[in-house]
Specification:
heterodimer, A: mainly alpha, 5 helical Cullin repeat like, 6 domains, three-stranded antiparallel sheet, 36 helices, 11 strands, 60% helix, elongated, B: alpha+beta, Herpes Virus-1, two-stranded antiparallel ribbon, 10% helix, ubl conjugation (chain A), ubiquitin protein ligase binding (chain A), isopeptide bond (chain A), Cullin-domain-containing protein (chain A)
């Protein structure tokens, strides 16, 4: 006889639930087992009907230790209750109405506690006896009959669902039926039947309905997806009806053949529909076609594709069936696209296409909810198909150069970022980049027709190239380095005609450009730069200095710069003294103080001369016999300035005396010095009256002035012959011809030559040009002085070459003196290091100088296999 | 036509008033050049003209005068070395 002990709470709870649920019928024999199952499965509570009277599982403890429960002490009660829960719970109070009214008396359960004295019960209260009676009669319906009846209605419901009809039985009834069957421990059977039923539906009707679909031929995806959606809907319903089966039996079943209703449904769909050969191929191909159409930008039903992908995903076919196919198909598509695009389009178009495809494909992956891993693989496929396979075309030097030429920043940016995806971009781009720089640079340098614009063009090129590095190449270090290197290479490239020296043209042109800047001649050179004139000038100088840094033949630059500076200082042509100073400072920081020492002392000479002349003007010799001429004298220290040839010229007597007085004053002040006039460098201002009304001030070189002064002594309109002029001035032919040319054949013709033609012949006669006109009062005719003659240029080059030899020898001797003994290679290296600030030397040149020093006995070779040198004191 | 000189910007260069190619008796370098320790000729490395008529680089003769054995004599003529004040 089953005896149960409950505390009051549990009992009342049981009653309450009982009232809530009233199962219509319950055949005998179901309840007990199902409850047990329930608790075996850890179901939260039970409202099972009458337990079987002869339940084999009884709470043994209760029988063995009834005295515990009798006493009802709290700890004991708890203990007992726990045991009961562990084993089984029997609700003894509920009893369904109706057929169970004729209760079987044997079902009555009484929890009897025979009062048995406990050995020691300090808190024991009054012993109590609890009787529980089962007032409900068990159903007498046969379980099998019940099962088949219920299944019948369930099956009918299922068919109704499948046929989308209304279900005749009430849903609650169906649910209850399921529940009861489950409780009667026939869940497995129920599941098997359910599965069979669904399986036959899916495998047969649903499948054929798909294939019978109108659009099956064209649009398999749509058919499958709509069938899927329908099946999902139906499955939802089925699941609701069989919820109890799901929850109580299937969900916790570890046996893999018992899946929850939903997964079973999915599995059936998967097996019968998707994996069916005839459907699967068509369906997958359909998806691929949709993707293909999307890629070709033809309209597709995007939501259909999205649902198809989602379906594939929920059917767990994504990685097994969909992804591999998708990737294969994509790979084919993109390698074909790459092949076609790369060969038929220009690089710029292809780059654009690639970037777009990459972008679109990424978007596509997001839009159709493809897996991140697919997205990654797609990235690789695109890179391979579009970029890696087409690498020769992508990095084709010609095409890249074309882009650079067109300054196509957009395409270059695309190119850089695309190549960045498949490796180190600089390694692919560098050859083309360098080649381009060299080609453009060379073309600028060797363009003799536009020699004068060379620096300007180089500056533009540098600016452009810098922009390339900064914008499309994202400040790539390697490319920036390549830029510097290539720039240096073409700037210092050897030319054929001057093979013993590196090409010094750029150095020369840079010096000339700086000269123009400092004379204020090219203030518009850097238009677009903000700021006042000074700031613009400073900016331009900074830019030029940037070029200057690449130049290896810095001595060439220095020579020309010095010549130009001298001219600026002597003719007072400097636009701004501050600018001159700042340029000097820049050169000093760039090349060291040795480089600028001479230039600085030139400035110093000018300052000293200024003091000297103001001193002279206070002396007696000045105030005594001043011929009313504003005299200014610049005294140069010979070594710092460029060398000038002495030009013999006859100065008018008064002027010569005046100069002599200055000379005396100067030599008085600086004893031990000798002054020599450099008339070729002097200039003066003459007031000339061509007619009484026409008075002009002429700015002339002293040589020109001397010629003009001769005409003071003759009547207006009288000619002087070439010979007469030559005698009067004492000039040599070369200088005289040049001077006369500037006066009679140039822009401002002060003199008239009687024969036509540009060339001066010794037989020519000259007279003053009475018709000389000029809008300005002050006319500058001494431009000729500012111009550099070809001989001067050659001479400068020669001097540079010579200086270089001396520099080299001096460096070698300095090194040998400090080291005494040195190996050949070390000596060469150290010499190059020492002289690199002034200009880079060639090894053969150094060798030549070493030979010379050995000849002069400054050093000697030591015998031995390796070449050692020793310094000879 | 009459022309009149209004302004005259003359340029002159100076060198030491010694015979060309003459060398310093101490360092045997031209007077126009520098003493061995200098790099830039001119004011940076001036000459010193002695009353005895011998000239030297200032740096050269200075070094000489400062040695004990010189006893303040001109290295060329062994007279007392006095220079001509500028």
């Amino acid at each position: 006889m089953p005896e149960k002990v409950f505390d009051q709470g549990t009992q009342s709870q049981g009653k309450k639930r009982k009232q809530n649920l009233q199962p219509p019928q319950l055949p005998q024999g179901y309840s007990q087992r199902s409850i047990t199952d329930f608790f075996g499965n850890n179901a939260p509570d039970s409202d099972a009907p009458t337990p079987h009277p002869s339940s084999p599982k009884r709470p043994r403890k209760n029988l063995e230790q009834p005295e515990h429960s009798k006493n009802m002490s709290t700890p004991l009660n708890e203990q007992v209750w726990r045991r009961i829960t562990e084993n089984e719970i029997v609700d003894l109070t509920s009893s369904p109405p109706g057929p169970r009214d004729s209760a079987n008396p044997s079902m009555n359960m009484v929890a009897t506690k025979p009062p048995r004295p406990a050995p020691f019960q300090p808190h024991a209260g009054t012993p109590r006896k609890l009787h529980i009676k089962n007032l409900r009669n068990p159903s007498r319906i046969d379980p099998d009959v019940y099962f088949s009846r219920t299944w019948g209605s369930l099956e009918a419901a299922l068919i109704a669902i499948f046929e989308s009809r209304k279900i005749s039985t009430s849903l609650e009834e169906l649910y209850r039926g399921t529940e009861n069957i489950c409780r009667a421990d026939r869940a497995g059977e129920l599941y098997a039947r359910l599965k069979d039923c669904c399986s036959s539906y899916v495998g047969d009707r649903l499948k054929y309905s798909i294939m019978a679909c109108n659009s099956w031929k064209d649009d398999a995806v749509k058919c499958v997806v709509s069938a899927w959606e329908k099946w999902n809907e139906q499955l939802g319903m089925i699941r609701s009806i069989f919820l109890y089966l799901d929850r109580s039996y299937l969900l916790n079943n570890s046996n893999s053949s018992f899946q929850p209703v939903e997964s079973t449904g999915l599995e059936l769909f998967r097996r019968h529909i998707i994996l069916a050969q005839e459907i699967e191929t068509k369906f997958m191909n359909g998806i691929m076609t949709l993707f293909g159409r999307d890629r070709q930008q033809r309209p597709i039903n995007a939501s259909l594709l999205t649902s198809a992908i989602r379906m594939v995903d929920s059917l767990d076919l994504y990685t097994s069936n969909f992804e591999p196919r998708f990737l294969v198909m994509s790979r084919e598509y993109y390698s074909r696209l790459g092949m076609l695009g790369a060969t038929s389009n220009s690089l710029a178009e292809y780059l654009d296409e690639c970037s777009q495809q990459l972008h679109k494909e990424a978007l596509r992956c997001v839009r159709y909810r493809l897996d991140p891993s697919t997205k990654r693989s797609m990235g690789l496929i695109l890179e391979e198909g579009l970029l890696k396979n087409q690498l020769p075309i992508l990095t084709d030097q010609g095409s890249i150069e074309e882009l650079l030429q067109k300054e196509d920043h957009k395409s270059l940016t695309a190119l850089y970022s695309l190549v960045d995806r498949i490796g180190e971009p600089s390694s692919y781009l560098r050859p083309a980049w360098e080649k381009y720089i060299l080609a453009v640079g060379r073309s600028i340098i060797e363009d003799e027709g536009r020699e004068n614009e060379m620096v300007q063009r180089l500056l533009e090129l540098k600016c452009n190239l810098d922009t390339f590095v900064r914008v499309p190449f994202k400040c790539d270090d390697t490319l920036a380095y390549a830029l510097r290197e290539s720039f240096g290479t073409f700037l210092n490239a050897r030319t054929k005609d001057r093979s013993e020296m590196v090409n010094s043209k750029p150095a020369e042109m840079i010096a000339k450009y700086v000269d123009t800047l400092l004379r204020g001649g090219a203030s518009g050179a850097s238009t677009g730069t903000p700021g006042d004139e000074d700031a613009r000038l400073a900016h331009s100088l900074e830019q030029v200095l940037d070029l200057f840094r690449f130049i290896q033949g810095k001595d060439v630059f220095e020579a020309f710069y010095k010549r130009d500076l001298a001219r600026r200082l002597l003719m007072d042509k400097s636009a701004s003294r501050d600018a001159e100073r700042s340029m000097l400072t820049k050169l000093k920081t760039e090349c060291g103080s040795g480089f600028t020492q001479n230039l600085e002392s030139m400035f110093k000479d000018i300052e000293i001369s200024r003091d000297a002349i103001s001193h002279f003007k206070t002396t007696r010799s000045h105030t005594g016999n001043s011929p009313n001429v504003d005299l200014n004298v610049l005294v140069l220290s010979q070594s710092a300035w460029p060398t000038y040839d002495e030009v013999p010229v006859i100065i008018p007597l008064a002027m010569a005396q005046y100069l002599e007085s200055y000379k005396n004053v100067y030599c008085e002040k600086h004893s031990g010095r000798k002054l020599m006039w450099r008339h070729a460098l002097s200039h003066c201002v003459l007031r000339a009256s061509f007619t009484p009304e026409m008075k002009k001030e002429l700015v002339l070189s002293v040589l020109q002035a001397v010629v003009l002064l001769l005409f003071n002594d003759v009547e207006l309109g009288t000619c002087l012959s070439y010979q007469q002029i030559k005698e009067g001035t004492g000039l040599e032919d070369k200088q005289l011809i040049r001077t006369l040319q500037s006066l009679a054949c140039a822009k401002h013709r002060v003199l008239q030559k009687q024969t036509k033609g540009k060339d001066i012949l010794p037989t020519d006669n000259f007279r003053v040009n009475r018709h000389f006109t000029n809008s300005k009062f002050r006319v500058k005719i001494n431009q000729i002085q500012l111009k550099e003659t070809k001989e001067e240029k050659e001479e400068t080059f020669e001097r540079v070459a010579q200086d270089r030899q001396y520099e080299t020898q001096a460096a070698i001797i300095r090194i040998m003196k400090s080291r005494k003994k040195l190996r050949h290679n070390d000596l060469i290296q150290m010499t190059i290091d020492q002289t690199k600030n002034r200009g880079k030397l060639d090894v053969p040149e150094i060798k030549k100088q070493i030979e010379r020093l050995i000849d002069k006995d400054y050093m000697e070779r030591l015998p031995g296999a390796e070449t050692w040198y020793q310094y000879v004191a | 036509m009459k022309v009149k000189i209004k302004k005259w910007n003359a340029v002159a260069s100076w060198r030491w008033d010694v015979p060309e190619d003459d060398v310093c008796g101490i360092c045997r370098v031209q007077f126009d050049g520098t003493c061995p320790n200098c790099r830039f000729p001119g004011d940076d490395c001036p000459l010193l003209v002695g009353k005895c008529g011998h000239s030297f680089h200032l740096h050269c003769v200075n070094d000489w005068i400062q040695t004990e054995s010189s006893r303040g004599l001109c290295p060329m003529c062994r007279q007392k070395f006095e220079f001509v004040a500028e």
